[in-house]
């Protein structure tokens, strides 16, 4: 086992992102209460620490409403609720989040999303300034403190809502982004910085950069990796499963899927495209890092592919590079959740979030 416990999370596929064959939608895998609650409850039973509940306006059911509902249908797993900055009035969002944390018995975590909101486009600088102000506002209100702010985007004098989190503190805030503006917000405001799949060397470089940035604010930052997984009993079976996943995908359909995302032109998405272009003819950027998923996905576009020993070794290599949290997924999400839990999860040194956050704050 790795020397220090890491967080291992799964993915709730709320954003219409679940397929047997990538890019070929099936009615029973479309985002819905029935399908997504089945994935989350399986991740809970399988012992994952957390589960990402993604947000997309054009894609799938609402993540906040889903989190409120699934909180009462899960027992141990934390809920990493994606919140798109700017979509709601800040004090009301704080009230909703505190209420969901109560429903979940203190198991709420928050993923801050800073992409454009529907019908609005902001330049990078103003958009991340809005995110910075909202994060500070949420921290105050969710910590039971009055908010007094005269910012560019938040101009409020408001008491905290009576509804409060179980701990009385703001839940952990996860945040990702690769522009200079995004990295500065993460370093100064977030608890966990999330990066997308890349070579081990590149991830190591990102971790070092973000830890140095956080140090300039006299802060510590946990770095997390969002990646897909294809694990089978043999390497040959895993590679065959990866090839099968994209066997019915054409470039036009893939481009259409990528274009639906509100962050399809971001710096991070461009880096995923560059990683894909650097790969070998069969899609591997380095050993066991397969970029085929990026053909039909604008965000995290690569997967760790291999047998259980190879997948575990790759994850440990990322841990040695400084990764302290993993958000994993696989296609189809329900089936791959069970496969990872059977073959790899019991061999990882991971634990529930409460003890880790209790010692890091």
Structural account:
The protein is α/β, with parallel strands linked by helices and 361 residues long. The chain has one domain (7-228, 330-360): Luciferase-like domain (TIM Barrel). It has 12 helices and 13 strands. The protein has helices at residues 33-46, 63-70, 90-103, 124-142, 180-189, 200-216, 235-245, 251-259, 267-277, 308-320, 333-343, 353-360; strands at residues 7-11, 50-53, 78-84, 108-113, 147-150, 155-158, 173-176, 192-195, 222-231, 284-286, 289-290, 303-306, 323-329. It has an 8-stranded parallel barrel with strand order 1-2-3-4-7-8-9-13, surrounded by 8 helices. Strands 5-6 form a two-stranded antiparallel sheet. The longest helix is centred in the middle third of the chain and has 19 residues, at 124-142. It starts with 6 loop residues before the first strand and ends with a helix. 47% of the residues are buried. The mean pLDDT is 90.
């Amino acid at each position: 086992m790795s020397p220090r416990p890491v967080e291992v999370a799964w993915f709730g596929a709320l954003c219409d992102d679940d397929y047997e064959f990538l890019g070929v939608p099936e009615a029973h895998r479309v985002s819905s209460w029935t399908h997504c609650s089945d994935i989350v409850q399986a991740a809970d039973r399988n012992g994952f620490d957390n589960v990402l509940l993604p947000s997309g306006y054009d894609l799938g059911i609402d993540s906040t409403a889903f989190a409120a509902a699934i909180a009462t249908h899960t027992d141990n797993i934390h809920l990493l609720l994606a919140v798109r900055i700017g979509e709601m009035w800040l004090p009301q969002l704080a009230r909703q989040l505190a209420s969901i944390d109560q429903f979940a018995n203190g198991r709420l975590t928050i993923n801050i999303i800073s992409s454009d909101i529907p019908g609005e486009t902001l330049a990078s600088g103003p958009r991340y300034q809005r995110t910075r102000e909202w994060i500070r506002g949420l921290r105050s209100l969710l910590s039971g403190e009055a908010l007094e702010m005269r910012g560019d985007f938040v101009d409020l004098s408001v008491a905290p809502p009576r509804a409060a989190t179980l701990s009385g503190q703001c839940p952990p805030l996860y945040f990702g982004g690769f522009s200079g503006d995004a990295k500065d917000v993460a370093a100064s405001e977030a608890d966990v910085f999330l990066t997308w799949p890349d070579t081990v060397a590149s991830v190591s470089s990102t971790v070092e950069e973000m830890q140095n940035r956080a140090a300039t604010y006299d802060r510590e930052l946990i770095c997390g990796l969002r990646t897909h997984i294809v694990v089978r009993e043999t390497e040959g079976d895993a590679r065959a499963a990866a090839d099968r996943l994209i066997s019915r995908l054409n470039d036009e359909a893939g481009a259409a899927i990528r274009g639906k995302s509100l962050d399809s032109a971001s710096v991070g998405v461009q880096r995923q495209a560059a990683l894909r272009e650097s790969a070998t003819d069969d899609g591997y950027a380095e050993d066991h890092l397969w970029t085929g998923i990026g053909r039909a996905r604008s965000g995290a576009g690569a997967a760790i592919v291999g047998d259980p020993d190879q997948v575990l070794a790759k994850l440990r290599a990322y841990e040695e590079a400084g990764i302290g949290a993993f958000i994993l997924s696989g296609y189809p999400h329900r089936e791959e959740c069970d496969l990872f839990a059977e073959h790899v999860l019991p061999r990882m040194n991971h634990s529930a979030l409460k003890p880790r956050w209790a010692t890091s704050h």
